[in-house]
């Protein structure tokens, strides 16, 4: 093999990147080929690897993709309300051009996007896996652009995980894979992601992290040469409602009281008692009392996720909200 062109990045860098799965790709036919062109990444999952499939999300990934989205806002139309808000806050972020330079092109460096090792990783813990100066730039971007909306973002991500975890329990992993993204399919023990060029990823031992994301919309992303567990990032459900300000229905407020009606409005996505108390401007004890009454009326359910207790609106409550 001859020497690489100076304009071509080293192979190790290319394979370390996370690549998008474009929605414009044609569907896979004939085992992944269409008109003689390979248009897929095959991800092999079986045995131990399939048993290690789990869900997690990443504050670092959200921040990096949000910054990338500011470069091409037209490709992320659902986030335009946030774009208009965020653009005025870019001035003064140190070394922002350093981060932007590394994000150019359709593939993104995997060293800027660590695989989350727990379902809700801490920003500081994730940034310890990112080299300088990018780690400091990402921290500044998160504080300035993401942190003011983080509770709202995590509510959407948690709701997505809750829905897909229920699908996993009811219908199995195949149903989860089939519903992740229009360009992701599952067949014969392999995830097929429609994109070019051809690439094969074997995760039969390491397993796969399914990572819902807000700012990766409208595409899915796959680590094409993972070290350890693989990761597939996909747009979370409910992104279209993320930047909408939902008003409390006045008829519902008259029926059950304004605070409880507002609480049900906030529970469009799962939230903790602390989140609700902060949003309502009341104590956690007061929220617990309201939740107890709404739970008795079968308008709210509560479940524990590790150390976190999340409250969710029921379908009966959804009917009242319409």
Blueprint of the fold:
Layout: H1 11-15, E1 17-21, E2 33-34, E3 37-38, E4 40-44, H2 48-51, E5 54-55, H3 59-71, H4 80-86, H5 96-102, E6 107-109, H6 123-127, H7 134-146, H8 150-171, H9 173-178, E7 184-187, E8 190-194, E9 199-202, E10 208-213, E11 220-223, E12 230-235, H10 250-256, H11 258-266, E13 271-272, H12 273-280, H13 284-296, E14 300-305, E15 308-313, H14 315-321
Parallel strand pairs: 4-9, 5-10, 10-12
Antiparallel strand pairs: 1-6, 1-11, 2-3, 4-8, 7-8, 11-12, 13-15, 14-15
Helix pairs in contact: 3-7, 10-11, 12-13
* Strand order of the biggest β-sheet: 5-10-12-11-1-6
Number of helices: 14
Low-pLDDT parts are: 1-16, 22-38
Shape: globular
SSE pattern, N- to C-terminal: HEEEEHEHHHEHHHHEEEEEEHHEHHEEH
**What distance lies between the first and last C-alpha atoms, to the nearest angstrom?**
65 Å
Strand content: 15-25%
Let me know the number of strands.
Answer: 15
Structure in a nutshell:
The chain has 322 residues and is an alpha+beta fold. It has helices spanning 11-15, 48-51, 59-71, 80-86, 96-102, 123-127, 134-146, 150-171, 173-178, 250-256, 258-266, 273-280, 284-296, 315-321, and strands spanning 17-21, 33-34, 37-38, 40-44, 54-55, 107-109, 184-187, 190-194, 199-202, 208-213, 220-223, 230-235, 271-272, 300-305, 308-313. The strands form four sheets. The chain has a six-stranded mixed sheet with strand order 5-10-12-11-1-6. Strands 7-8-4-9 form a four-stranded mixed sheet.
């Amino acid at each position: 093999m001859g020497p690489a062109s100076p304009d071509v990045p080293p192979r190790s860098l290319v394979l370390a990147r996370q690549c998008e799965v474009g929605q414009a790709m044609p569907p896979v036919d004939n085992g992944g080929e269409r008109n003689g062109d390979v248009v897929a990444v095959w991800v092999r999952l079986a045995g131990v690897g399939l048993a290690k499939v789990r869900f997690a999300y990443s504050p670092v990934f959200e921040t990096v993709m949000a910054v990338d989205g500011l470069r091409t806002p037209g490709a992320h139309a659902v986030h335009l309300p946030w774009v208009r808000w965020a653009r005025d806050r870019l001035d003064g972020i140190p070394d922002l051009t350093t981060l932007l330079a590394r994000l150019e092109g359709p593939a993104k460096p995997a060293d800027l996007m660590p695989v989350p090792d727990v379902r809700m990783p801490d920003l500081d813990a994730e940034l310890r896996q990112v080299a300088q100066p990018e780690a400091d730039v990402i921290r500044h971007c998160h504080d300035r652009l993401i942190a003011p909306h983080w509770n709202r973002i995590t509510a959407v991500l948690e709701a997505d995980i809750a829905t897909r975890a229920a699908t996993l329990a009811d219908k199995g992993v195949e149903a989860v894979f089939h519903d992740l993204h229009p360009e992701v399919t599952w067949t014969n023990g392999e995830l097929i992601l429609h994109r070019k060029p051809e690439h094969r990823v074997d995760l039969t031992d390491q397993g796969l992290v399914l990572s819902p994301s807000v700012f990766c919309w409208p595409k899915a992303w796959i680590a094409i040469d993972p070290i350890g567990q693989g990761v597939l990032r996909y747009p979370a459900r409910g992104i279209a409602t993320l930047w909408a300000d939902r008003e409390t229905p006045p008829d519902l407020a008259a029926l059950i009281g304004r605070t409880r009606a507002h609480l049900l409005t906030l529970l469009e996505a799962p939230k903790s008692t602390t989140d609700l108390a902060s949003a309502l401007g009341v104590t956690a004890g007061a929220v617990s009392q309201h939740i107890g009454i709404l739970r008795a009326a079968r308008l709210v359910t509560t479940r524990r996720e590790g150390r976190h207790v999340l409250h969710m609106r029921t379908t009966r409550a959804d009917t009242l909200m319409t």
